[in-house]
Design brief:
Blueprint (H helix, E strand, L loop, with lengths): L16 H5 E6 L10 E6 L4 E5 L12 E5 L23 E2 L4 E7 L4 E5 L4 E6 L2 H4 L2 H5 L8 E4 L13 E2 H21 L4
Length: 189
């Protein structure tokens, strides 16, 4: 018997390319802002892809992106990043709290996406400038924000301040349970 997508019922779906080749790490409540969670996809070759976590408020239904801006300050644009050669010389060096871009929604809400890790900026995703909806439709693939290469000597330690997928899922489950606990303990007056 087949399901709606033509898979055999009871047959496990094949893992996605992301799940097969990348390890997911998370940074929750970035810079103290509730639910502004980021996801870092780390490949075995050290390259990290910065994306929005599936819990980020930007991915909520009903939000529409008006503008994505890689111009961080008057003197710094991530679009001016140029790398060359095998060692990726010339890329902007980022600290873990370096802003990558600012995203403005049609309701004037603004979100800043941060690098989350230290490393050299290899590229930013210019496709989302032309098609901002990619960020919401495919945040882990075509809608990624940037690609960063950590220093070789730091490649093992960059995940020390990040949450594993299991820890992140527990954190999110705790967030979702918290409002109902408050409602259950409230006493009628």
């Amino acid at each position: 018997m087949d399901d709606d997508e033509g898979h055999k019922v009871g047959e496990a779906a094949a893992p996605s390319v992301i799940d097969r080749y990348y390890t997911r790490w998370y940074r929750a409540d970035m810079k103290g802002k509730a639910r502004e969670d980021h996801c870092i996809l780390q490949h075995s070759n050290r390259i990290c892809v910065i994306t929005l976590a599936e819990t980020h408020p930007l991915l909520e239904k009903g939000r529409t992106i008006a503008k994505i801006n890689y111009q961080i300050s008057h003197a710094c644009s991530r679009l001016n990043n140029k790398v060359s050669g095998k060692s990726k010389r010339g890329g902007q060096f980022l600290t873990e709290f370096a802003p990558l871009c600012r995203i403005t929604c049609t309701d004037e809400t603004e979100f800043t996406v941060y690098s989350c890790i230290r490393g050299r900026l290899l590229e930013v995703n210019e496709n989302i400038l032309e098609r901002p909806a990619l960020l919401q439709e495919k945040p882990s693939t075509d809608g990624y924000i940037a690609v960063i290469l950590p220093k070789f000597e730091e490649s093992k330690s960059i995940t020390e301040n990040l949450l594993s997928r299991d820890h992140f899922e527990k954190l999110v489950a705790g967030r979702d349970a918290a409002p109902s606990v408050v409602a259950d303990t409230a006493q009628p007056s």
